[in-house]
């Protein structure tokens, strides 16, 4: 705390290429920063639920109260009303290293393919995890776990073309382990499957479905945690520094996984939008509404969530509380300027609104920011990191740079700098 009573919020001072230009070079006139345009007039006002106020009106003032009272209350509300509840069916788990190649990526990495088998009630489900660890590391390294929407071939650079979606080489060069699995291994993404007869549902569901039964996003989040079960056993990985990453539907999932599973040190939500980082109560004419997402993807959320289409203000939670559940761990939210369906401003304001939860832990979140940073300029706060890049709905190499830079800060690999 400083004498004015607020904690400074820190930002990473990156050395950009322009600062390295030789004195003889004439720098081009800097383009003025471009900002994401404000909402069109007439947007409806809304009031968000207070992170620190319980359903019965108590105000949370300490970490102990947050962790014993409000955090469990919020988790229960998200389970009951949004993503659904994982059944408590007992299961066993086995890991098998299917292949290992210590000369991957031209010798820079060791590539392992691990089969994670989860067994219950005489059935089994296999998740294939692809893991690259840097050969130059002398101690366990932090890791990124990506759940991808594309089939398994995409995670092997020997087969797939290099892609911004999954830049294994860059992660390895920056000293991170890179792990990925395919969402369909945990639960196929089929909208006709509203009976939930496959994937993790078929494995663990014992009784008839209820309005609060888990749906596909909850099954994917469960799959992320099963992959983490393996990662924390791998000696190459620093078990307390695993980040979970997802784009769009997988970004929604990464947030719900990290909210529940406190072993994740960091969650990266890429263009996650409605049901992810974006505030549901904020309605714009371009964004995906709660009604639309439940109509278009009837298999993603619990049945109870469908009742809130057009009645968002009646929800006991909004998505800033999902992000707040991750505090004091690190949340990164990325938006894209043309991705109005995902509501970039709603994603930013949601992250801003986590501040009371971070402050309980002596962290500043994004501080008192209410304005989005210029497009292309990351905002690195305390626990909370945000950026919006130019372009469309996608997970790109530039988004990954934002995640790697944020992780460098979160995991103490570079020192933060104050932004005020
Ligand atoms: C969209 C959907 C979004 C987002 C996206 C995706 O069509 O409306 O909520 O999840 O799909 O996952 O690519």
Sum this structure up briefly.
The chain has 420 residues and is an alpha/beta fold. Helix content is 26%, strand content 20%.
Detailed description of the structure:
With 420 residues, this protein is of the alpha/beta class. 26% of the residues lie in helices and 20% in strands. It has a ten-stranded mixed beta sheet with strand order 2-3-4-6-5-7-8-9-11-10, with helices on both faces. A two-stranded antiparallel sheet has the order 1-12. 46% of the residues are buried. The protein is globular, with a radius of gyration of 21 Å. A hairpin with a 3-residue loop joins strand 10 and strand 11 (384-389). It has twelve helices and twelve strands. The chain binds beta-D-galactopyranuronic acid. Beta-D-galactopyranuronic acid binds at residues 248-249, 273-274, 288, 293, 296.
- Straight-line distance between termini: 13 Å
Instruction: List the uncertain runs.
Output: 1-23
Largest sheet: 10 strands, mixed
What is the CATH C level class, in words?
Answer: Alpha Beta
The CATH topology assignment is Rossmann fold
Give me the number of helical elements: 12
CATH architecture: 3-Layer(aba) Sandwich
Strand content: 15-25%
**Structural class based on helices, strands and sheet pairing:** alpha/beta
Q: What is the global morphology? A: globular
CATH superfamily: Alpha/Beta hydrolase fold, catalytic domain
Strand order of the largest sheet: 2-3-4-6-5-7-8-9-11-10
What ligands are attached or bound here?
A: beta-D-galactopyranuronic acid
